[in-house]
Specification:
The complex is a heterodimer of chains A (450) and B (465). By secondary structure, chain A is an alpha+beta fold. In chain A, the strands form four sheets. In chain A, strands 3-2-1-4-5-6 form a six-stranded antiparallel sheet. Chain A is globular, with a radius of gyration of 24 Å. Chain B is α+β, with helices and mostly antiparallel strands. In chain B, the strands form four sheets. In chain B, strands 1, 2, 3, 4, 5, 6 and 7 form a seven-stranded mixed sheet that branches. In chain B, strands 9, 10, 11, 14, 20, 21 and 22 form a seven-stranded mixed sheet that branches. Classes of the chains: A alpha+beta (450), B alpha+beta (465). Chains A and B meet through strand 2, strand 3, helix 2, strand 4 and strand 6 of A and strand 2, strand 3, helix 2, helix 3 and strand 7 of B. Strand 3 of chain A pairs parallel with strand 2 of chain B, so a sheet runs across the interface.
């Protein structure tokens, strides 16, 4: 179906070189992508790329080694296996080390590969990037520039095979248009972004991306810095997705077993508001991160992490599953062939509530809508739970959106925010991230401004 | 490095220009890396990697075409050249063979011990020593992770202007992260060093020393109180705050963002944009520093560029694309993550020049505020100038004295504002920790540095009222 037969051949060949008593895993990947950037009505750049490579994991007794090479040359493959073997000899013995083994869970059939995307002529991709830029420029008289307008498509295929009997092939396509623009009024500039994502060209709606970017940039014009206070905040779906992704990282088996999760000893406890139900499910085809198998070739599956605020489970790969005395939950994640499998949530979603964003705003009455955040990577510590991030947004007054706000921070702790959830919106938005977006109302958040 | 013959490069460049492009370039790279990770008391992983390939760029009018390949044969390179030429997609024609002139390069750093010549067991031993030292430092230490990494990146650049040059870039890095636990929960501390040198890095730095520093940061924070919220004076310690200037103004001085109107510093050359105390420099030639190299990823030699002199904006940073377009010389700021990426304008080592005040006087002269010994990563919106960065190690200043440690939080401010709000500058300049700068999804190694300084007012994003 996907033409990845040759990848499987390479994986099988590497696995076939395993010596007696040695476990070998090969992950072989190949990807292609095109990127077209438009600027001032012309093509600014057009890149086309094909990447490939193999990552080899060797387990000798209770030690593991890894090496990768970004090529399929036969002599390099042999050299890479030898390097991985040599690396294993320097690892500490660890009784939990080992490759994944087939566990009988059926691999779901997901419609993630659309051959039509591979047939799109370059001219059509160029046309879409140009159209997007033109739409934004014409979107509002206050739009003063388009920083970037791009079309990107990607096709990835991979095979994981091992001496323990794993043999999984996967392939998917994806494409998006994204734009970042500038709006200017009274000599002051604001920025906004928008995007549209899909698995084939027909999924993309450049006008949606344009509308979002224009709305986000123009509605912030005239923004001022708020006074410091405590307030109820409403997180835009895009912001919620980022917060949920960090929460997910505290629920990884690795963070828990290594004593780095604030939720480590809390299984079965009520750690959140009863409104919080959180599921990780990479078998949901609506998720852009959906995949039939995980990074070790095991079937993806649905895991309930929090149900009505009660902590239900952590996620595991083969290693942490063995260590925890349970099993993999199909949550091995790897950054392509260049790394060993880590463990992490793959497609998180909060159970939606009843109200859309306008209704939530009316319910909140007075507070702040956080439309975007900046610096989440530097101000949030998933070990201590300390949470502080730069923000932009709009004041909520009398249940309606009011004046734009900028240059402030919102702060709390992950533990407290989870308990302070006051409502979850009905507006689920699947984003190109490991978590879905939804409007989220959190009370008693510290706003720092003047 | 797999050598590509000069005549092959000439023909490939000729093929790239076949469709009528005005500029063509071949960038080839061969990178080998090793990393070793200790976590939870175990050497968890020793990993080796090899990345090798070439990218071909063709510029035609306003359009850039780019293609890359891991096939370094003439046929593979030609295929990439034709794809890039087609992407640049102009008519015209005429075939060229480019005459190449090999340029000698002097790399600012020297490497005494190639990491590839050091036994893996020796590298792994460093991790064990760090683990032991961190655990021995304090009973509150619960978890230690340590990472060793080295890389050797050999690059070759040839272009249709006749340039043929190359560089051999070696980097060695060591970092330690510690988790300490107490009555108030868990806290983290870290310490990292990285230089463009070989294994002799460990003649200069004791891993035990780094481990104890990381442990001390984590343990200190166990007694930390919530950071305040709101505006107040902030003193930033020497070496700990270069990222502020990288974010607050460095990115806004990158010519690509300036040209697109996405910078608050557009049209401001020659103007006073900062306090007269501020002289901001980007310098790829500082020997051994993390952002140092012989040539950038377009073949231009590393340079020292004064961006702001005594508060006056002197120039932006340039790469081939923006330099060609605006008739400006390249400034050694064209960088890319790998052969799979297009180069763009990037910083190297960005720092604020030394001042004259005694740092002790700067703290003593601060009535009430925050002392930030170490900043974490940051981000900026170059169009508005609004930036944030995390405080990894911070303390309260009360009546001119550094007092209690603070929990983590973000600082938020505005670039042009913070530059004019610098009201004191110490004489204790120091470079900071090695960093990775992200832009358009590409990461490149960068360095930064500052002397102790005081900003009149920044917003602290803590939770305490």
């Amino acid at each position: 179906m996907t033409g990845s037969r040759d990848l499987t051949d390479i994986a099988d060949r590497v696995v076939g070189w395993a010596a007696d008593g040695e476990a070998v895993e090969a992950v072989v990947g190949r990807s292609r992508h095109t990127e077209v950037r438009a600027y001032e009505g012309d093509v600014e750049s057009l890149s086309s790329a094909e990447s490939m490579g193999v990552g080899i994991r060797v387990v000798l007794g209770d030690r593991q080694g890894f090496a990768y090479a970004a090529t399929f040359d036969d002599d390099v493959l042999a050299e890479t296996l030898a390097e991985a073997r040599d690396n294993a000899s320097f690892a500490s013995p660890d009784p939990h080390v080992g490759l994944a083994e087939p566990d009988g869970v059926a691999v779901p059939t997901l419609d993630l590969f659309r051959p039509s995307l591979l047939q799109v002529p370059t001219e059509d991709k160029v046309a879409m990037a140009l159209e997007l830029e033109a739409l934004v420029r014409a979107g509002d008289p206050r739009i003063s520039g388009v920083e970037s307008a791009e079309f990107v498509d990607a096709m990835g295929e991979a095979c994981v095979a091992s001496t323990t009997g794993i043999r999984s092939e996967s392939a998917s396509t994806a494409c998006y248009v994204a734009v970042s623009c500038l709006a200017e009024e009274d000599g002051l500039t604001q920025t906004g972004f928008g995007f549209s994502v899909g698995r084939e060209l027909g999924d993309l709606v450049p006008a949606d991306a344009s509308d979002d970017a224009v709305m986000r940039s123009t509605r912030l014009l005239g923004a001022t810095k708020p006074a410091s206070t405590r307030a109820t905040v409403v997180l835009d779906p895009y912001v919620t997705a980022q917060v949920i992704a960090i929460l997910g990282s505290t629920l990884s088996g690795e963070a828990v077993l290594k004593g780095r999760s604030p939720f480590a000893e809390r299984l079965g406890d009520e750690v959140g508001s009863p409104l919080v139900t959180l599921v990780d499910d990479a078998t949901n085809p609506l998720a852009y991160t959906a995949s039939a198998t995980d990074g070790e070739g095991l079937a993806s599956r649905r895991t309930s992490l929090l149900a009505d605020g009660v902590l239900q489970a952590f996620v595991h790969n083969a290693y942490t599953g063995r260590w925890a005395g349970t099993a993999s939950t199909g949550n091995a994640v790897r950054g392509g062939f260049k790394s060993t499998p880590g463990v992490g949530c793959r497609a998180l979603a909060l159970a939606p509530g009843q109200l859309d964003q306008p209704a939530l705003l009316r319910q909140v009455g007075d507070g702040v809508l956080v439309s975007s955040v900046i610096g989440m990577h530097s101000g949030v510590n998933p070990v201590s739970g300390d949470f502080s991030t730069g923000a932009e947004g709009l004041r909520i007054a009398g249940g309606e959106l009011g004046a734009p706000l900028r240059e402030f921070t919102i702060a709390s702790t992950l533990q407290k925010m989870l308990r302070d959830v006051e409502a979850v919106g009905s507006d689920v938005d699947w984003l190109p991230m490991s978590a879905a977006g939804v409007s989220l109302v959190i009370r008693d958040v510290t706003i720092s401004g003047t | 490095m797999a050598v590509i013959e000069e005549d092959v490069l000439s023909r490939v460049l000729g093929a790239a220009l076949q469709g009528g492009g005005e500029f063509a370039e071949v960038f080839a790279e061969d990178k080998r890396s090793t990393s070793a990770v200790l976590d939870d008391g175990r050497i968890e992983e020793l990993a080796s990697g090899r990345d090798r390939g070439a990218g071909v760029r063709v510029i035609s009018g306003e359009t850039t075409g780019y293609a890359h390949t891991s096939d370094l044969s003439e046929a593979g390179l030609r295929a990439a050249a034709e794809a890039a030429g087609a992407a640049a997609r102009r008519g015209g024609g005429g075939s060229n063979v480019v005459a190449l002139d090999r340029q000698a390069v002097r790399h600012p750093s020297t490497v005494a011990i190639q990491p590839e010549d050091v036994a893996k067991a020796t590298k792994v031993e460093l991790l064990r020593r760090a683990d032991e030292a961190a655990r021995g430092a304090d009973g509150a230490v619960r978890q230690v992770s340590a990472r060793y990494g080295d890389s050797r990146r050999r690059i070759l650049v040839a272009n249709s202007e006749g340039l043929l040059t190359g560089d051999d870039q070696v980097r060695t890095l060591f970092s330690v992260g510690v988790v300490a636990a107490g009555d108030t929960g868990m806290q983290t501390g870290r310490q990292s060093v990285g230089h463009t040198v070989g294994f002799e890095l460990f003649d200069r730095y004791e891993v035990e020393d780094m481990a104890r520093k990381a442990a001390s940061r984590a343990v200190t924070k166990l007694g930390a109180r919530p950071a305040p919220s709101g505006e107040m004076p902030v003193v930033i310690g020497a070496g700990g705050g270069g990222v502020l200037f990288h974010e607050a103004c460095g990115h806004g001085l990158e010519a690509d963002l300036v040209a697109k109107g996405a910078s608050v510093y557009r049209d401001r050359v020659g103007q006073q944009v900062a306090s007269p105390l501020v002289t901001l420099i980007d310098d790829g030639t500082v020997a051994d520093e993390w952002g140092c190299f012989g040539i950038d990823d377009e073949g231009s030699p590393a340079q020292r560029n004064v961006l702001i002199q005594d508060g006056v904006l002197t120039d932006y940073m340039w790469d081939v694309t923006r330099g060609r377009k605006e008739g400006r010389p390249r400034s050694g700021n064209g960088r890319r993550q790998s052969y799979q990426h297009l180069p763009m304008v990037r910083m190297t080592n960005t720092f604020l020049a030394n001042g004259t005040e005694d740092p002790a006087d700067i703290i003593a002269g601060t009535d009430h505020g925050v002392y930030v010994a170490q900043l974490g990563g940051g981000s900026v919106n170059t169009a508005t100038g609004d930036f944030v960065f995390g405080m990894w190690e911070a303390y309260l200043i009360e009546d001119g004295v550094v007092t209690e440690p603070l929990r983590e939080g973000n600082l938020i401010g505005n670039g042009p504002q913070v530059l004019t709000d610098i009201e004191a500058l110490g004489d204790d300049f120091a470079m900071g920790s090695p960093g990775t700068c992200g832009k358009d999804g590409q990461g490149v190694p960068v360095g930064d540095g500052v002397p102790t300084l005081r900003v009149r007012s920044l917003t602290i994003g803590g939770t305490a009222a």
